[in-house]
Amino acid sequence: MNAEQRAEQIKQRRGQFGRATRGRPVPPALRCEAVSCWQALRAEGMSATGAAERLGIAVQTLEHWSGQGQRRFAPVIIEAEPVVTAKQSQWVVHGPCGLRIEGMEMEGLSELIRRLS
Asked: What is the model's pLDDT at position 87?
């Protein structure tokens, strides 16, 4: 039996259960079979949407059943910022035309300003 025939058979069996709800979920065996057939149809070159339509099941449902659905949370790694060990001056001088001088000590800055004046 090829994937197309399996899809039609699964679609008919799925229809027997009616609309799935929390109280009436689709049996796990049928879920596994539907996902397997969906993946086989996709391997034959059919689009995910086309294969899902052939099965009569939404793409999002098949992705959820197969474990490929979107995750609500992504893993996050928090890293500490590197510690700056070199002594840096807190003084920053902004001059004309975008000139910016930083990293100088107060003595060097005062000497620079005196010479530029």
From this structure: 63
Q: Is 11 exposed, middle or buried (0-12, 13-18, 19+ CB in 10 A)?
A: middle
Decide: pTM greater than 0.90.
Answer: no
What's the angle, vertex CA 41, arms to CA 4 and CA 71, rounded to 5?
135
CB within 8 Å of 112: residues ≥ 6 apart: 93, 101, 104
Q: How many angstroms separate the CA atoms of 90 and 10, rounded? A: 71
Task: Look at residue 95 in the predicted model and tell me its pLDDT.
Answer: 78
* Torsions phi, psi for 92 (to 5 deg): -135, 130
**101 DSSP β-pair partners:** 93
State which residues of the chain have pLDDT below 50: none
The residues with which 62 forms a beta bridge, in sequence order, are: none
CA count, 13 A, side-chain hemisphere, 69: 14
Which tokens in the block code for residue 104? Answer: 């100088």
